[in-house]
Predict the 3D structure of the following.
Amino acid sequence: MTHPTRIVLASRPKGAPTAENFRVEEFDLPEAREGDVTLRILYLSLDPYMRGRMSDAKSYAAPTPVDGVMEGETVCEVSRSRDPAFKPGDIVRARTGWCTHAVLAGSSVYHFNTHGAPDTTAIGVLGMPGFTAYSGMKVIGQPKSGETVVVAAASGPVGSMVGQLARLAGARAVGIAGGKDKCDFVRNELGFDAVVDHRSKDFVTDLEHACPNGIDVYFENVGGHVWDAVLPLLNQFARVPVCGLVATYNGAGAGDHDRLPGTMGAILRRSIQVRGFIQTEFVKDHYKDFEREIGPLVANGSIKYREDVVDGLEKAPSAFIGMLDGKNFGKLLVRVA
Ligand SMILES: NC(=O)c1ccc[n+]([C@@H]2O[C@H](COP(=O)([O-])OP(=O)(O)OC[C@H]3O[C@@H](n4cnc5c(N)ncnc54)[C@H](OP(=O)(O)O)[C@@H]3O)[C@@H](O)[C@H]2O)c1
């Protein structure tokens, strides 16, 4: 076995993270105890929420300590098992963090079922990001036939699922994405009804033209200038699942102007329902339905997805930094082994 390697948080970023905020180091695997499994990490998922863990600002989850391993979910191969529920060779999902090997209690390791879709989907379209879209739409968005649903970061794992679920519900799906290639993918491969480039100088009027009947569901992934363009178009009784605000994660966008009076006024006058959520609150009631309903649709190609795979754990920091600036194209994964 090559020496186990991990990536730790070397220092807390101020603004956008830089390479200096991360440190690659070798470590010794702990001894496996009764009930533990030893894992070889195959793929690591890189997700926007990790930026929040790098900061010590108050949030829904505890921050990663400085010198602590960067958190993350992985697809792994069981190499040794002291838990009868697992055997060597099993492919599983676990929260190992950014590392090449791990020893974890078997009770925290998950056998997944992708219905024949590739194992990587267990941390993408059929994992946490796909479930985020599914549960946010099911519980809060509740799109109806003929309505207009808008989502940004539309080529990513959350946004691409939101738009495809909207279409399955008979609604019109309008995507917002950055740049021509992503827009072409959203329109032509994912089958959204319309797509708008938020980097275009005509973004505001393009969005208006793409939503001639206004917006009934806006699935909020980014905030910032995208929210400014969406707000005037929200219909009476519109629903806004607030899933993420990636435009502000590096500290930009929040202070450029005060959005609160305009936003609260629109919520009041148009009876708009704005509901934030963290997907974990819906796991107990909806995860099994998600696996049963969406797994087969992904496996048979009815629901499409795209993965952006970088090679080697040491590339995780640069890939992660790029994602916060829209450089990824699809679900960002690191092939570790
Ligand atoms: N609430 C929850 O439980 C939960 C769970 C998972 C994810 N999330 C949130 O869901 C959102 C999408 O996550 P994901 O994993 O699917 O990410 P993703 O789409 O793979 O990556 C983030 C994307 O955000 C877009 N973006 C970045 N900065 C932007 C800006 N200033 N303005 C507009 N767009 C910008 C970029 O796409 P473009 O180049 O197309 O703009 C970038 O590719 C994130 O906000 C994430 O935090 C929330």
